[in-house]
Amino acid sequence: MTTITNHLPTAELQALDAAHHMHPFTANGELAQKGARVITRAKGVYLTDSEGEEILDAMAGLWCVNIGYGRDELADVAARQMRELPYYNTFFQTTHVPAIALANKLAELAPGDLNHVFFAAGGSEANDTNIRMVRTYWANKGQPDKNIIISRKNAYHGSSVGSGSLGGMVHMHAQGGMPIPDIHHIDQPNWWAEGGDMSPEDFGLARAQELEKAILELGEDRVAAFIGEPIQGAGGVIVPPETYWPEIQRICDKYDILLIADEVICGFGRTGDWFGSQTVGIKPHIMTIAKGLSSGYAPIGGSIVCDEVAEVIAGGEFNHGYTYSGHPVAAAVALENLRILEEEGIVDHVRDVAAPYLKEKWEALADHPLVGEAKICGMMASIALTPDKASRAKFATEPGTVGYVCRDRCFANNLVMRHVGDRMIISPPLILTPADIDEMMRRIRKSLDEAHAELVEKDMMKAAS
Ligand SMILES: *Cc1c(COP(=O)(O)O)cnc(C)c1O
User: Fold this and answer.
1) Distance 64 CA to ligand 1 centre (A)
2) What is the DSSP letter of 366?
3) Which of 154, 156, 159, 169 to mutate to test the pocket of ligand 1 (most atoms within 8 A of CB)?
4) Which residues pair with 261 in a beta bridge?
5) How close is the Cα of 459 to the center of ligand 1, in Å?
6) pLDDT mean across residues, the chain
């Protein structure tokens, strides 16, 4: 199918892009040689590029386009809000209707006494807020030394200096002077890669108990909070063993440690509930939100805070905020997105239709010669590629080499599926129908078959010794 394009030829756009645009998380020199793919429009679950190719977006952009592309309602709301009040701040004892309405809606949707919202323009900013908020909470309570935040290796909490420090990505820490002080990282609950001979259940408990060990070592009076994604996203869609989160909750309760759930990916229906915390059965004091909050149509994030923490913070001035905290256009767009999620029953669709159907197809991938485990929670899923399933072997090649081969086959087959090391991951729009899922799985299987054939031909199906 060809689409008539109303812009410059692809090669020209790519050259201009390479000349002036610095891409995030990219070796820009390498990309300049190759040329970036130019996306021109999108509808439903499909992207269109400048060559007129129709690409199935199994990543929902960057884990965010939960309601799918091309919903005019959001564009209409944005235009209306821009005409009425394009901007005003919420700093100087002022407020506006979109911020009021969105905060109220979020308080209604969030579980328990998570009733207060501090807005940001995205997840990184919101996690920076969280660092300062939990430390200020304890300082206001007379415990300024209770300021260490415990996180996990291979966690992703954003890319600002604060949130990147909370995250546990070694390649990020290697650049630009991270992590900041008083952030402590424990091991992740990644059984496939790190579980050794333990059962997943025992391993989940052991990894959770590292939190207790860390608290005892650092001192209960030094540890302010623990932060975790209910399901690790950017780390490779790591679904923890079922024993993991209940034990983390028990430890946080026992030692009076605040629990922060980073719901930036898991929130707003992705796991089949409104929030991942509900799926894994935890009661956080703070939830980080962004991405699916607006389905990516406008940049907005925030922290949803429980009564007790909000009350202590309200006891003094919190010297923190962003120009775009509660931006009226972004807030209005988010509110409309939540209306659509709710009125169209999209969270129910995930739980009752899309996720069960996808689970059946996804878990069947474990039969493929290249696939070890296939893990899924709601509409986020991963497969571990391996040269030997029985021993959960890693490849002899540099980690990520095989994943990249597979990712390239996906790209060629007009499918956006990402690789994290040698894991392949998806996080598609939540509106996927069973027919969409069939088409996605067809492209995934084709890409896996081609990648496998290429690896066999290049003699790369070899285990690391
Ligand atoms: C994407 C992400 C963030 C960062 O959000 P930005 O909007 O990119 O700043 C934080 N936490 C998690 C779990 C994420 O996936």
Assistant:
1) 10
2) G
3) 156
4) 228, 287
5) 37
6) 97
CA atoms of 320 and 127, how far apart (whole Å): 12
Domains of the chain, first to last: 37-67+345-457 (3.90.1150.10), 73-343 (3.40.640.10)
Strand partners, 258: 225
pLDDT score for 7: 74
- Residue 58, both tokens: 């199994």
Query: What stretches of 264-327 show up as alpha helix (H) in DSSP?
Result: 276-280, 307-314
Q: Is the CB of 302 under 6 A from ligand 1?
A: no
Q: Is the pTM of this model over 0.90?
A: yes
Q: Ligand 1, from 229, 231, 264, 286: best to mutate by most atoms within 8 Å of Cβ?
A: 264
Tokens representing 416 are 């956006």
* Contact criterion met (CB below 8 Å) for 304 and 287: yes
Instruction: Give the model's confidence band at 299: pLDDT under 50 very low, under 70 low, under 90 confident, else very high.
Output: very high
Return the pLDDT at 338: 98
Query: What percent of the chain lies above the pLDDT cut of 90?
Result: 98
| 132 pLDDT tier (thresholds 50, 70, 90) | very high
Question: In angstroms, what is the span from residue 264 Cα to ligand 1's centroid?
Answer: 6
Query: How remote is the CA of residue 390 from the centroid of ligand 1, in Å?
Result: 34
Q: How far apart (Å, rounded) are the C-alpha atoms in residues 95 and 321?
A: 14
CA of 122 to the centre of ligand 1 (A): 7
**What's the whole-number mean pLDDT along residues 133-153?**
98
